[in-house]
Structure formats: C-alpha cells, structure tokens
Design brief:
About 45% of the residues lie in helices and about 15% in strands. By secondary structure, it is α/β, with parallel strands linked by helices. It binds 1-deoxynojirimycin (NOJ).
Length: about 575
C-alpha cells in the first residue's frame, strides 16, 4: 500500500470559492480537465535542476568562504530541526555519480548554480580568487559536456558571501551591483567558452521578500515595507549590468545567452464576474512576476505597483514612495536586458480584493490590498504552500507571452515535494503532478507561447532552505541519515524518462502504460531502501548506545581511577603515620 505522507494542516486560508463563476474564463475554459496527447517541438530541451547551497555540502572545504546561508543556518531556531546545508547531498564529492543519474534520465540539460564564496571567498575579486573552487565547477562543466548534457548556470541562487553582508548590508546596498558584476565577469572569463546559458538571479522575489522583509531566509532581515523593494531595486540593476557586461565584452566571442529566472504563482480571481477580484488577481501577478519582469522588458515597475505603494506611502505621511524609482537613463539601460526568461512555477492561488488600512503600518503584503485563497480540493502532498493546480501554469505562460512580447522561455523550476517522514519511492502524486503540469505547458506551446525547455525541480532531495530536509523535491531520494548520502530513484524517474524519450505524450495507451511500469519497479526499490534504512537505523542506535558507554569508560579511566588511587595513597599515608605514632 502506498504511504501518503502529508504532515501538518494547511496554513492557508481555505474558503468556499465561487468556482462556478471561475469556470468560464476565456481560452482555457474547456481544457481545465482534459488531457492533450501530442509531442513537443523538435529540439525541446529536457532537464533537471539543483542549486549550490542546497546540494553541494563541503561548506568549509578547499578554501570556500562563508555565505549568508552558512551563517544563517548555524543560528539556532532559523531552520527546521536546526538543520544546515553543511554536508547536504555531498554533491561536491559526487559529481560523477550525479551525472550518471542525469544520463539515466537522458537529460538534455542540467541547471546548477555557482557558489559565489566558493570561488571568491569574501565576494570581492581583489581579495582572493579560489582556484580550487573554480576547478570544481570546471570539472563539473567538462563532465556534463562530455556526456552531452548542456549546462545552464545560475550565478546567484541566494548564497551571498557573508563578508558582503557584514560590510555593506548585502542587497540593501548599491555596491552589490559592482561586486556581483565582478563575480559574473570572472565566471564568463573562466567558464564562458563552455557555458552558453547564463541565469543572473534565481527567484529574486524570494531574496527580496523572504530575505529582507519577513526574515524567514538569510540574511534574516525584517525591514517591513522597505527592505524588499530596496533589495529588488539593486538586484534589477545588478542583473542589467551583468547583461550589458556580457553583451559588450563576451557575446561576440562566446555566443551565449543571458537571462534571469523569475518565479511566479498564478493568481486567479475568486469571482470572475467581479471587477475588483479581477484587478486584485492582476495585482497579485504584477507584484510577483511583474515586479522584476516589467522593468526588464519595459524599463520600469508595473504601473499598479507604483500606484499602490505610492498611495500607501502618502497615506503614511511619507514624502516619497517606498518603491524606489529608476531615472530615465536607468530605465533605458535596464529595458531589454533578457535573452531568455527563466520561469520557476509551482502553484496557484485564488485572489480576492481586501483593503488593508495604512494606519497599522505597511508591508509588501498589505501594499497589494488582496487576500489569497485556496480550493480545499486541490492536492497538497508536501510543502504547505504547494497545491497542485496545473491549469494555472498554462495561464501564467500565456500571461508572459502577452505581457512581455512573447519572449523565449525556459522553465527553470517546476515540481512537487513530499514530507520527510516518507521513505516512499512510489511517488504517484509526483507522477501525476509532472504529467499534468507538463501537459499544460504543451497546451501553452500550442497557444503560441515560446517555451524552449523544461527543468524538473529537482534532481535530488536536498536542503530545502528554512524547511531543512523536511521537504523532498527530488526525482531521486537521498538517504541523509547515511553519511554516504546514497541516491535511490523514485518512480517519477521512470515516468519523466519516458516523457523525455517520447518528447511528450504520444497516445493514451502508451502514457497509461508508463505509469503502470513506473510503479511496478518502484516497489522493489522501496523494499531495498527500507532494508537499508533499517540497517542504518540499527547502526545509529548502536552508536548511541555505544557512545555513552565510551564516555563512561573514559570518565572511569581519566577521573575516577586517579582520584581513587590518590585517595588510597593519602589514606595509606595517614594510616602509616598513625601506626608509627602508636609504636613510639
Ligand atoms: C524556489 C527555489 O528557487 C528553490 O531553491 C526551492 O527549492 C524551490 N523554490 C522549492 O521551494
């Protein structure tokens, strides 16, 4: 029997929704439930992804400097069970193993990130460049290419060098723009003859909001209503600068592309007949994806952000908007700095209008004047925030097409998690999720959206930020209790592999067969894993029993024995003196 491991109840507001009204929404209305059999355009690129801090481990090896995540995760109470990414999947030592997993999947590309402090320990080029760190990435890139897997390299997946945080306040400070540009230039110089796809930032929304507004992520700052906007402003400028650096100095020689990976949930109006809900849903998407995409494609922030944050700032009695402004020179410099757009997408929300009065202080969340809702029927197998709503993916992709002039898109993250108590390799819910989301992406391509590749998130189970190891996104299960961190294929590996080799969904009979085959093989792997886990649990128990014994023995030999001996000698001396006295 399959164990569905769903821990904890939903933290979201779960309301009765006006679903009947939402049913008649333009171009996707008849397709919400239907499955589309067909294949992807020739040359479509299939991949899987990871990021440095989440998988590499080796946090203090071979000259690596500290990142804000090393420091943050070592503070008590920041991460679930106080876990850290110190060793994580030990990816740093397992490049060959992991590339053979990619080969098993027949991946066309692999997305990973470069750890800035691994190659520049303080983040500052003039301080020191760590050749051992460079060598690690060189070997990884070379091995990928030897195996005909295209590297897609992210420059910033959240692990800012700690020195830059301490000295300057990290992304609150404009000086990050030049430091990041130096780091990116070094990567272009050292890896650019082999890497043709660069992503400047991964999900800057999270960096800004969770790093500088809510403080759930490193560096853990809570600068409500200002911190996120300021961080985002500097990130957008840093992205543009790096794009221009590549464009003017490297593009001719290296012929690569530079993009950014933005994440975005889809926001669907609760009541499609209510203009306020329609506008609120639009605001949700503009404050999320549009915050970064609109400056990059059109030169400035979305009008609705400028209006709402400006209005709220005025109500607070502030002289200017909490949303920073770009000069006209900056606008033209930023506009058009994107060769392809990376999209990370996982879930959808229903959105309704909700006013937040300004007198109780403002934040990014209250600035939007909306509430997020979920349908209790949406599957929610893992992370509390992650509901499976495949049709939202197609809508988001169409939104990108119409808003930003049909750019070239790579889906840089898409996938689903399960909770940690699972040692379940038969991940039928992931199979379902991938099947449905990839199918919606196929429909979007038929709508004319220019999607060139898809990256399943993630190749391995790994450190899931503030959730530690409690949420597993991997196609491959990692046994974190075993110090060798062995990997085991989940059933979804078999399924994804078949989607890749057929370049889509050829016909109903075949596709149904895939699921049957995938679940057949996983039961035997499950037994293997369970046996292995029992063995390592037993070994751990023995170690626990053994450990107190060892320390007990040490205490006996190092403290008790010498003390007793000294006492004995003293007593004998006293006794001897007593005897001698009596004789006299
Ligand atoms: C987006 C982040 O970029 C990634 O690192 C994370 O694992 C996924 N979200 C899932 O939470």
């Amino acid at each position: 029997m399959l164990t569905r491991c769903v821990l904890g109840a939903s933290h979201m507001l779960v309301l009765v929704l006006c679903l009947s009204a939402a049913e008649d929404f333009d171009w996707t209305k008849n397709d919400r439930g239907s499955f589309y059999y067909g294949t992807f355009p020739t040359g479509f690129s299939w991949g899987a992804g990871s990021s440095a801090y989440q998988t590499e481990g080796a946090w203090d090896r071979d000259g690596k400097g500290m990142s804000i995540w090393d420091v943050f995760s070592h503070k008590k109470g920041k991460i679930f069970l106080n876990d850290t990414g110190d060793s994580s999947c030990e990816g740093y030592y397992k490049v060959k193993d992991d590339i053979s997993l990619m080969k098993e999947l027949k991946l066309n590309h692999y997305r990973f990130s470069v750890s800035w402090p691994r190659i520049m320990p303080t983040g500052i080029k003039s301080d020191h460049v760590n050749e051992k760190g460079i060598k690690y990435y060189e070997d990884l890139i070379n091995l990928l290419l030897e195996n005909k897997i295209t590297p897609i390299v992210t420059l910033y997946h959240w692990d800012l060098p700690q020195v830059l945080q301490e000295k300057y306040g990290g992304w609150q400070n404009i000086s990050m723009v030049n430091y990041f540009n130096d780091f990116a230039s070094l990567c272009f110089e050292r890896f650019g003859n082999r890497v043709k796809y660069w992503i400047t930032f991964n999900n800057p929304w999270s960096v800004a909001v969770e790093g500088y507004e809510t403080g759930e992520h490193a560096p853990g700052m809570r600068l409500k209503g200002t911190g996120a906007y300021k961080a985002a402003h500097h990130i957008i400028k840093a992205h543009a600068k790096v794009w221009h650096t590549y464009d003017t100095q490297w593009r001719n020689k290296q012929k690569g592309l530079v993009g950014i990976s933005l994440s975005g949930d889809w926001g669907e109006p609760v009541d499609i007949t209510n203009q306020k809900d329609i506008e609120a849903a639009e605001r949700y998407v503009q404050f999320y994806l549009g915050w970064f995409a609109t400056p990059i494609f059109h030169g400035d922030y979305p009008q609705v952000m400028k209006d709402y944050i400006g209005k709220k700032s005025a109500q607070q009695g502030l002289g200017s908007s909490r949303l920073p402004t770009f000069s006209s020179q900056e606008k033209s410099y930023i506009k058009g700095t994107c060769d392809f757009l990376g999209i990370g997408h996982f879930t959808t929300r229903y959105i309704t209008q909700k006013n937040f009065p300004s007198n109780r202080g403002n934040s990014y969340f209250t600035d939007r004047d909306l509430a997020e809702l979920v349908d209790p029927r949406w599957p929610d197998p893992g992370s509390e925030w992650l509901y499976s709503v495949p049709w939202g993916f197609r809508r988001l992709l169409n939104f990108v097409k119409t808003q930003y002039g049909n750019p070239m898109i790579y889906v840089t993250e898409n996938g689903v998690s399960e909770k940690m108590l699972c040692t379940e390799l038969c991940d039928d819910w992931r199979i379902q999720y991938l099947k449905d989301y990839i199918n919606e992406m196929l429909k979007a391509i038929k709508d004319g959206v220019n999607v060139k590749g898809y990256t399943a998130w993630s190749l391995l189970d790994k450190f899931e930020w503030d959730e530690g190891y409690s949420e597993r996104f991997g196609l491959y299960y990692v046994d974190f209790r075993n110090k060798n961190k062995p990997r085991y294929p989940k059933a979804s590996v078999q399924y994804y592999k078949r989607i890749i080799s057929s370049n889509g969904f050829p016909n109903q009979r075949e596709v149904e067969n895939w699921k049957r085959k995938a679940t057949e093989t996983c039961s035997s792997s499950n037994q293997l894993l369970a046996a292995e886990e029992q063995r390592s649990t037993a070994a751990n128990i023995l170690r626990l029993i053994h450990d107190p014994l060892t320390s007990h023995m040490e205490m006996v030999t190092e403290i008790v024995v010498p003390t007793v001996c000294t006492l004995c000698i003293l007593l004998s001396a006293v006794f001897l003196m007593f005897l001698l006295r009596r004789r006299n």
